[in-house]
Amino acid sequence: MEFIAMYANSFIDLFKAGAQIFTGFVTGIIPLVVVLMTAVNSLIKLIGEQRFYGFARKATKYKLTRYTLAPVLSVIFLTSPMCFTFGRFVEEKYKPAFYDAQVSFVHPVTGLFPHANGGELFVYMGIAAGIQALGYPLGDLAVRYFLIGIVVIFLRGIITERIYIYMNRKAGRKV
């Protein structure tokens, strides 16, 4: 009898844990994203949509800024997952590559800007614990991680862009 009661309690505890996580989302990340979206949209309205879109389009016009500056700024200032909305300023044919660059940067940014992606912080902290155990400073790790992240997102952006254009041409679609 005790055996059945123990499994029944464990079964219910599983759902209690899920409910606690859900409550955390409802009181944590969801309101944060809604407020961030509201603030960004308000800022765009105050600046003027045409001026803001013009600036954003210029920032995503060239490969160098499209796959470095734009993803870095959007991840730092808009944080994950709001940063992905910045893709609306990118030409349609560059969106897959821009997304690849952006999603690849939400981890390397964590050492210097932990607010940018709290979900990735546990990975960085695991690496940081190993670095600290070896006696090395964390500042060097954070800066190197950030800089190498920029190089990686630039390369990923260019490579993904070429693959996307190649695949579309092969399928007979004009890009």
UniProtKB/TrEMBL annotation:
An annotated Gene Ontology molecular function: transferase activity
Enzyme class label: transferase
Pfam families per record: EII-GUT
A single Gene Ontology CC term: membrane
GO BP annotation list: phosphoenolpyruvate-dependent sugar phosphotransferase system
Alphabetical keyword list: Membrane, Transferase, Transmembrane, Transmembrane helix
EC number from the UniProt entry: 2.7.1.191
The keyword Transmembrane helix belongs to this UniProt entry's keyword annotation: yes
Membrane-spanning intervals of the chain: 21-44, 64-86, 145-165
NCBIfam families attached to this UniProt entry: EII-GUT (TIGR00821)
Protein name: PTS system, glucitol/sorbitol-specific, IIC component
Protein's organism: Megasphaera micronuciformis F0359
